[in-house]
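Hi F.,

I've been meaning to write this up properly since the lab meeting, where we talked about keeping a consistent format for the predictions we share between groups. The idea is simple: the sequence comes first, exactly as it goes in, then the structure tokens exactly as they come out, then a line or two of notes. No screenshots and no reformatting. I'm using this chain as the first example so we have something concrete to point to.
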Amino acid sequence: MTGRSLEGANVLILGGTGSLGQRLSRRILTGEMGAPHSVTVFSRDEAKQHYMRLELLRQAEATDDIIYRESTRRVRFVIADVRRYSDVRRHADRAEVIFHAAALKQVPTCEYFAGAAVDTNVYGAINLVRALRERGHTEKSVVGISTDKACKPVNVMGMTKALQERVLIQANIEVPWARFVNVRYGNVMASRGSAIPLFIGLARRGEPIPITDEHMTRFLMTLDQSVDLIFGAFREAGPGETFIPRVPCAKVVDIARAVAGRDDYPLVLTGIRPGEKVHEILVSEEEVGRTERRRDRLVILPILPELRAEARAGGAVLTGEYSSSEDNLALPAVRELLRGHRLTVDTAREGEEHYA
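Output, unedited:
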């Protein structure tokens, strides 16, 4: 089914105070997908909730970037944890649409705290599926937010997110009255904890920029492109399908030089961090045979044959894995892209959050 809308829906955003959760909330509140009845921001970070609430109040008073009227009455903030089944059940009960963005996502952190990553990334999804299975037969849609690191995972973060994907895909059989889909994409440019804000700060101080490996590449995607992908999956994805973006990629050394504004800016090699990949992969060789193209996106059909609709004609759309190691942008193109999003040292405003 296509053409789904959020009009009149009760929406729940698990992990709603992260960079993505905040942008997703803001986009939902514009009404572009239909005006929801309510939006519940679910997270365990009271400080982020406080500042998000203040930001929402300021936006509601704006004239040039207005969030639709009475939006502050439609938004609920709840302190809750996906690791606690009772929290998930309580708030999933009243939602028709659930965006699951709660995660431990820092790769080195997950290597050192693997148990916590499993609790959040795996058992959080299990709790959500259990809540929907045990609490009636109300039709619901769930969009799980995954990562390139779930594809051929080599680190704890990727391993746990790969399991999250599979838990949600399998849930379509276990909870047939709900529709579970996934989106998978690489690191978002300048999201909280990412490299670009670090690069900007170092370049402003004239300090060398650390690069873990000179061959490292990354996809380049904005928060709004991430939300576009999530909305696309919500509208169009069939049960168990995974939506993948087609976005440019570049070498990290070129990203650093583009941010600093100098081709000869000093870089220092520090060695790969625990669990870090050299290249991002969004579609593996094993997934190529069940990957389709739909307009400007790739769609991986579910691994479970019971969920797989008949594949569209036209044969394979990829000849090999979809990786950031190929077709990298040249440095001038990287510089132009980052400048367009105010992500270079001479375009970023001092003190602003760099959530492009």
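Notes:
Residues 62-68 have pLDDT under 50 and may be disordered.
The domain at 10-340 is CATH 3.40.50.720 (Rossmann fold).

If this format works for you, I'll send the rest the same way.

G.
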